[in-house]
Design brief:
It is a single chain. This protein is mainly α. The chain has helices at 21-33, 38-43, 45-66, 72-93, 112-136; strands at residues 10-11, 96-98, 107-109. The protein has one domain (16-136). 61% of the residues lie in helices and 6% in strands. The protein has a 3-stranded antiparallel β-sheet, covered by helices on one side.
Length: 144
């Protein structure tokens, strides 16, 4: 199926035009960590309810890992599953990605591959950071 919007179509998140650097930074952090939006909730209530439940389950998995009750393979599997689901959620809620350097303010409509790359890289960085912190703290069980 061909995306009816070309990848070059501009998009503008609600916070993109702010003049406050602090507000922009806080909004960017929130945008990366919270995949849902108000208009997304209005359009896809069942999907978003399921995604919140899955996000809570993924958070419980990270807490179990921090308590030493989760093996590394299971943790990676859960994080991968959440990432796949996050792609679907973001395409319905926040269907845009940055166009150009990370410090810029130019956004464009994301196609499926854009969102897979964005979510995959973002969650790889977050997951690797959490994984390294838990492993170096001695909480994560690695068998092999």
């Amino acid at each position: 199926m061909v995306n009816p919007k070309m990848p070059t179509d501009p998009a503008e998140p609600p916070y993109a035009s702010t003049d406050s650097v602090l507000h922009l930074f806080a909004a960017e952090v929130w945008d990366h960590l919270w995949p849902w939006s108000h208009h997304g909730f209005q359009r896809q209530r069942a999907l978003h309810a399921a995604s919140i439940a899955l996000a809570l389950a993924a958070s419980v998995v990270w807490v179990l890992a921090a308590m030493g009750q989760m093996q590394a393979g299971a943790l990676i599997g859960w994080w991968f599953g959440w990432s796949v689901f996050e792609v679907v959620v973001r395409l319905g809620s926040k269907p845009y990605v940055k166009d150009g350097p990370w410090w810029g303010r130019r956004y464009r409509v994301a196609n499926t591959m854009d969102m897979v790359c964005y979510v995959g890289f973002k969650n790889l960085l977050i997951g690797a950071t959490l994984f390294i912190v838990l492993k170096s703290s001695g909480f994560l069980i690695v068998q092999g």
